[in-house]
Amino acid sequence: PQEAIDIMDVYLKRMGETAKAHRGVILKGQGDGSLFLYQKKDSREAVLATVRTLKEFHWMNTQRREHGEDYMGMHAGIALAHGTVGVIGQLKEFDSWGEAANLGRRLEQEAKGKGDILINATLYEAVKGIVHAEPINDGQPVEMKGMVQQLVYRVMSVKDTPDNVTGVEKGAPLHARFDGYRDEAGRQEEAFLKIP
């Protein structure tokens, strides 16, 4: 329907601008999601861009709620791992494959909470100076389809980020109660957005 197209258009425009501001690009859309690409040296920027994206989603949901429209959930998985990017095959499309893309997708699938940002342990080590994060699964390695078991962290807040660079406030907590969300069956659910 046209409404879904309009929502995705706004989403991709805003998220593309956010990724670009943090030295990343949208590699491709995948259904109702997107695959973003950052270089290893920009690991910090990848996390900050994702936090900022959640902030954008909070703004969009506030607007939707004011117009009586449904809440749109968002969650993310970010992996720092080896991968390959390039053009391959007859379609000649730029793409990414390998551990980075696969692990990012598995982390996204593991992020069951609305607004969760899950990261792998390698990325956590690279960004622990700027975020507060907690291990999931009681600190035990997580089993994900086609992956070696590994520790996974949930980003809880941004530690030390200058406003004028990222648009994310210093110490901004990533949990904010969003009342009034109903699932497809009409049941009331507690929903948490990660940016107030």
What does this structure look like?
It is a single chain. With 196 residues, the chain is α+β, with helices and mostly antiparallel strands. 34% of the residues lie in helices and 23% in strands. It is built from 5 helices and 10 strands. It has helices at 2-21, 43-66, 99-110, 121-127, 163-166, and strands at 25-30, 33-37, 76-78, 84-88, 93-97, 117-120, 131-135, 152-158, 176-178, 191-193. The strands form 4 sheets. A 4-stranded mixed sheet has the order 3-6-8-7, with helices on both faces. It has a two-stranded antiparallel ribbon with strand order 1-2. A two-stranded antiparallel sheet has the order 4-5. Helix 1 (2-21) runs antiparallel to helix 2 (43-66). The protein is globular, with a radius of gyration of 17 Å.
- Which runs of at least 5 residues are low in confidence (pLDDT < 50)? 161-196
Class inferred from helices and paired strands: alpha+beta
Q: What letter string, H or E per element, gives the SSE order?
A: HEEHEEEHEHEEHEE
Q: Using DSSP, what is the number of strands?
A: 10
Question: What's the rounded overall pLDDT mean?
Answer: 76
N→C terminal distance = 30 Å
| Order of the strands making up the biggest sheet | 3-6-8-7
What's the main sheet like?
4 strands, mixed
Shape: globular
- Helix content, binned percent: 25-40%
Radius of gyration computed on alpha carbons: 17 Å
Strand content: 15-25%
Number of helical segments?
Answer: 5
